[in-house]
């Protein structure tokens, strides 16, 4: 809206900032409300839902209830384990697959690659029912494997790394070949160290997707010991629906990790959007 | 093939192997099975029997009630009412879910793309603090949608939630200020956001849009930054105003981005599940039952997995059709350089 060094528009700029601050507050308000409520006790919430501070101090015990009695601590550990396994696994298989598609010639490469690309458009819901049946056959229903192993490969991630590896100059590996290195060494010693930004981008995409996933855990996991946070939240809402501080302390715990990753890696989130354009 | 080429090919397959195994076992295979299930009466407990197109006919088919049609007409009803009495869907809930899903998607498109563009245009200013606002507006995109739904449950709660409290505050204030003295006090509407069939769907649409705007805005921002500076400079030299530049240069250059967002946002919106699951369980009176939620009910709560699989393929068909239609009509309005 404003270009650099515009003069004589001070009143407009003040108005502009005022509008932006109001919009920004509207967007962030639900989180302010969440944090504020998570530190109150129930009577304070029902007395004045809008207040930021309840008046009887900060009720940290809401968090100990959620982490302990409600087992959110357990759910968070499960989710962290699943998310890290999936994220690291997806990065490794995408590096290997992207390298194969991008730098190695083999028969059927183009056809396979087109098949991969075609699958990006097919929603998970289409394969959800047979996937459940497959988990039954493997004995993985109600086990964390069901949330990890089927998710260790990603067509979009493979595509991302292929594009990156294809863009690197040929001389890189030719020099390494002359030094007697094989492809495995070249990939990990020459290519991967250059791929830092792509790895970071894929990390943000995989992390976000895995941490926030809901419908598949809901289908695949039944016992509370193996719940992930999103399931835990749905459960808290049922059990504590008369107690907003408990529910919202749970929501805070579920939301903070992805927001932190976002704040520390903003640049790569933007890159991820620009290159793949996927949220769900 | 030379020895080196053979070796290269073998290495290529080896590098691809982990990825390809995942693709075959956890994608291609379930995809084929899903297609097969959609033609069976599979229920998880007994072996599937082939039933031909029955599932698709159940979801998409109609029967005709000519008696009801005549009744409406003889009672003086109009043609439209008569036609809706004539067509009796085999599965009325499917059509309810389909209608809701389309309304949901349209609502989210309308409430996220245009505001996102305005925000991106504002935040593309060369002023201090723009990245802070960008981050604030983007946070709902990364926050767990299930967690966000729990927050909104208390924002929408009736009568003591955030919005109703604010409305009561404003109405009471206005009454004390003017309307009581005039003898016509305003009535507090006390809206049942999530518990009335009239407002539940729009309430969900608002929440989903809130969590989508940031994404659309960042996409617009990167497109805006791609507009070459000389275009702006030329416009300024020609004496074009801020608004003129917006409508004759910026918006036409944004049409490919708008197109991209229409496609991606519709694909996401046609698969909405978490919001109705957490906030309304598809109710009240099925007013927020979406197609994927319906699929979940049929497949995993009633174990009608054959029918569920056919619903999944119908969802895919819808996504395909919507995407195809958007591509088909894009040449009429998308500006290509």
Task: Describe the structure concisely.
The complex is a heterodimer of chains A (280) and B (337). Chain A is mainly alpha-helical and 280 residues long.
- The total count of strands of chain B amounts to 2
DSSP strand (E) fraction of chain B? under 5%
What's the gyration radius of chain B in Å?
Answer: 26 Å
CATH topology label of the domain at 91-145 and 194-337 in chain B = MetI-like fold
Percentage of residues assigned to helices of chain B = over 70%
List unreliable stretches of 5+ residues of chain A: none
The ordered string of helix (H) and strand (E) elements of chain A is HHHHHHHHHHHHHHH
What's the shape of chain A?
globular
Element-level helix/strand string of chain B: HHEHHEHHHHHHHHHH
How many structural domains can be distinguished in the coordinates of chain A? 2
- Average of pLDDT of chain B: 90
Estimate the global geometry of chain B from the Cα principal axes.
globular
CATH superfamily of the largest domain in chain A: MetI-like
The CATH superfamily of the domain at 91-145 and 194-337 in chain B is identified as MetI-like
CATH first level of the domain at 91-145 and 194-337 in chain B: Mainly Alpha
Roughly what percent helix of chain A? over 70%
